[in-house]
């Protein structure tokens, strides 16, 4: 058992950078820039991959769900490993750097994979392994570099910069495709070059922060013992249950493409609708979470996703509903992504911060892997609209149960 209040984070270095970044540490901004460049790279691939797999290689929804589930679930165990090693070695930056480097190299792997679905699956799994290794240490660095009362704002700033990259990535992919006359290998190589810049930024500008416990105290048993703390256990459990009830991004965009017959040329632009809403909302929603409570905001974000799914399976195919669904998808991310880490961070002692956050992220990743497979199966057996309706109903029920259960104190 532990008392989180006894493990205060290292004093952050504050900077005055305007209304959105005031009192946010320079380390958080540097990590945000690393994520920005990394997301340009990853979204260049993500923007074209669903259409390439489904329309180009002819995968059905169940096959795509299995591959998408592998893409999401490959991070699960590695998140735990990355968090554990970072805390045990007290080298958050080094472990994160290995993850960023592995993901960069995997962009070259896509060049070698060609049109082989099996090879693409292996490369995507390796890419997500890199993400799994880096996510826990990175979020621990953000948490340890921030004042406890400003965690929502700090994660909001980081996710805002991250989303700028997500916004620019599809545009960069379209530009490369246009200049290369539709060459996917050119997109993959350009993505590798951009990812390499992100690794360089991490090495030059991010400062490491060591935990406050001895290495011997960082163990698998210590990670399991974190779940004895009631609030942390509830955060981890509900994050997993809600993850199981969500629908993956790729399915949301494929559903939009099918319902509104979006031309293949414009498919890579669909994530920009999500990013365009997420971008201006991440910091204000993070500040709101600091003020009124992070858990209510987290649940409200899932309610927004439920509303988006209802629009996708509604009887009317009005174009305005597509725009609104993308907007609600952006609200979902603004209210959940960084807010969950801000809620979990203070519940974990500083020396186990990466491990604790990785426990939450692992449960969520496993749940989302299962969600992708189940939704792909549902789409294959029932059709798109019934599958969306079932998913929206399940998410609504889970959000209501979570809202009326014992509240998490964050």
TrEMBL record:
PANTHER family: C-METHYLTRANSFERASE (PTHR23518), MAJOR FACILITATOR SUPERFAMILY TRANSPORTER (PTHR23518:SF2). This is MFS transporter. The chain crosses the membrane at residues 62-82, 102-126, 187-206, 235-256, 262-283, 295-312, 388-405. The keyword NADP does not apply. GO terms for cellular component: plasma membrane. It is a multi-pass membrane protein. Residues 217-410 form the Major facilitator superfamily (MFS) profile domain. It comes from Solihabitans fulvus. It is found in: Cell membrane.
């Amino acid at each position: 058992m532990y008392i989180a209040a006894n493990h205060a984070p290292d004093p952050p270095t504050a900077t005055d950078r305007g209304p959105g970044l005031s009192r946010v540490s320079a380390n958080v901004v540097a990590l945000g820039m690393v994520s920005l460049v990394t997301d340009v790279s990853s979204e260049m691939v993500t923007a074209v991959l669903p259409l390439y797999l489904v329309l180009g290689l002819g995968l059905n929804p169940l096959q795509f769900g299995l591959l998408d589930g592998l893409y999401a679930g490959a991070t699960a165990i590695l998140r735990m490993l990355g968090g554990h090693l970072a805390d045990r070695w007290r080298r958050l930056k080094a472990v994160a750097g290995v993850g960023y480097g592995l993901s960069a190299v995997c962009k070259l792997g896509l060049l070698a994979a060609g049109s082989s679905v099996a090879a693409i699956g292996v490369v995507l799994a390796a890419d997500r392994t890199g993400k799994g290794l880096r996510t826990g240490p990175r979020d621990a660095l953000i948490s340890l570099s921030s004042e406890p009362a400003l965690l929502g704002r700090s994660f909001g700033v980081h996710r805002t910069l991250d989303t700028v990259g997500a916004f620019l990535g599809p545009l960069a992919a379209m530009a490369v495709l246009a200049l290369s006359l539709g060459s996917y290998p050119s997109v993959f190589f350009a993505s590798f070059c951009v990812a390499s810049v992100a690794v360089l930024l991490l090495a030059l500008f991010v400062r490491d922060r060591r935990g406050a416990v001895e290495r011997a105290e960082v163990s698998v048993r210590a990670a399991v013992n974190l779940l004895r703390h009631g609030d942390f256990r509830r955060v981890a459990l509900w994050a997993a249950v809600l993850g199981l009830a969500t629908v993956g991004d790729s399915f949301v965009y494929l559903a939009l493409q099918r319902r509104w017959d979006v031309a293949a040329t414009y498919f890579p632009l669909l994530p920009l609708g999500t990013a365009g809403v997420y971008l201006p909302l991440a910091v204000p929603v993070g500040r709101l979470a600091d003020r009124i409570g992070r858990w209510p905001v987290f649940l409200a974000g899932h309610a927004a996703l439920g509303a988006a799914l209802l629009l996708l399976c509604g009887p009317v195919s009005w174009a305005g509903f597509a725009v609104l669904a993308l907007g609600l998808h952006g609200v979902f991310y603004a209210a959940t992504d960084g807010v969950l880490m801000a809620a979990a961070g203070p519940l974990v002692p500083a020396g186990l911060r990466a491990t604790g956050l990785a426990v939450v992220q692992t449960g969520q990743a496993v749940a989302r892997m299962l969600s992708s497979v189940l939704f792909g199966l549902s789409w294959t057996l029932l059709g798109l609209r019934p599958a969306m309706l079932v998913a929206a109903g399940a998410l609504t029920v889970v959000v209501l149960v979570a809202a009326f259960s014992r509240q998490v104190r964050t």
